[in-house]
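# nightly structure sweep
# worker-07 picked up a monomer target from the shared queue
# config: single-sequence mode, recycle default, output format = C-alpha cells
# input follows
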Amino acid sequence: MKKNLMLALMAIFSLSLSAQEKTRISENDFLSSLSTVKTQAIEAKAEKTEIPYVRTGTYVTLTGYVNLNGGAFVPQNGGFISVNLSGWAQLNSYDYKVKTDNQYVTVYASLWANPNQYVSQTVYPNISFRVYKEGKYIGTVYSNGSVNVSGWVSGNYVNLSGSGYLNASIYIPEEE
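# output follows
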C-alpha cells in the first residue's frame, strides 16, 4: 500500500514538473509573440470602415409679439384677484420661411389689488405652436417669454393689458 501511495505521489510530482516546463517561455518567444500582435494591430488599423451618411440641419429661432388683455372684479376693500389674459400670437423666422399658426393665447395671472391703485404683474406664457416651413408642417415648439401687464383699479374693476415678445427654437434637418 505504501508502495502504491509512493508511486502515485511521484506521478503527480512528475506531472507538475512537466506542466511547469511547458508554461515557461523564453524571452525570444515573448518578443516574437509581441511582433505578431503588432502586425495584427497594423492590419486592423488599415481596414476601412464605412461611415454612414448623417443628415445635417440648422436651428431656427422664431420670434413674435403678443398683446394680452383681461379684466377682473376687485373686492371693495381690495384683495387677491385672478385674471385670464388673452390675445393672439404668431411666431416667424427672420426670413418668414418658417412660421407658426396664428394661435389664441390664454394666460392666467393672480395678484393683489386695492381700490384706486395701479397694479402690475409679469406673466410667462408657455404656448405650444405648430410650425410650418414654406407651408409644410415640420413640428411643434413651445414658446417662452414674458409679458408685463398693468392697469388702474377703477371702482371694483381692473382692466389689465400688456404686450411682449415670445420666442422659440426648432431644429430643421436639411432636405435631401
